[in-house]
Amino acid sequence: MPVTTRLRSDARPLYTRASEAVRMLIQQGGYRPGDRLPSEPELSDRLGISRPTLREALRQLEEERVIVRRHGVGTFIAQPPPVIEAGLEVLESLERLAGRLGLHTEMSELHMAERPATPAELEKLGLAAGADVTVITRVIETAGQRIAYLVDVVPVVYLCCAELAADFQGSVLDHFLARGRPALSHSRTELAAQAADAELARRLHIQRGAPILRLEAQLIAQDGQVVDYSNSYFVPGHFRFHVVRRIAA
Prior knowledge:
Blueprint: H1 14-28, H2 40-47, H3 51-63, E1 67-70, E2 74-77, E3 84-87, H4 94-100, E4 106-116, H5 119-125, E5 132-142, E6 145-155, H6 161-167, H7 172-179, E7 184-195, H8 198-204, E8 211-221, E9 226-234, E10 239-242
Parallel strand pairs: 3-10
Antiparallel strand pairs: 1-2, 4-5, 5-6, 6-9, 7-8, 8-9
Helix pairs in contact: 1-3
């Protein structure tokens, strides 16, 4: 019996809800990589949406490597991308984690600048008004696909653009560890889901409104100072985070 999935009504764009419904149809229908999906007329009828909305949803899924569309042939389930899995108990850079799993990553759209910290950054970093920070943004790719957008805000007393310009490899954490200062202690990290705004959609080559994972972190030195405030945005499907929880004594 064909699987029928109707869209739920909420505030998200219609094509975003449509792409979610296609994902559900794929899961419920037992499709495997290489399998062909029903035709666009059949899909639009099952979902109760117009053909243009369906095409926009399929375009989003194609960008996320969920499906592959072949002109004149049909739409097929794509091979799953490599997944980077990590436990949040271990403080490790994305580059080191990917390398340990045998994945090659590349950095693009690197931008570094020094400027006065915003009020929110002053609070997160525990700085006094008027303090300057170094802001480092970059995109991380693997196999030609954008998987993460990283933003680090570091007090200039710990890191400046002149130092980074020579040999920055993509990770502020790894840079501090290789330099040996400041002496690092731990990180406070929050994990949340959010919808991609226009800037994140452009950076990650995904649809605006598409779901992404955000890791907001404060890197803390042994003297208690926050030496890096970062926001890392990950494209779902490429990452799996877990936490080991022990039984209370």
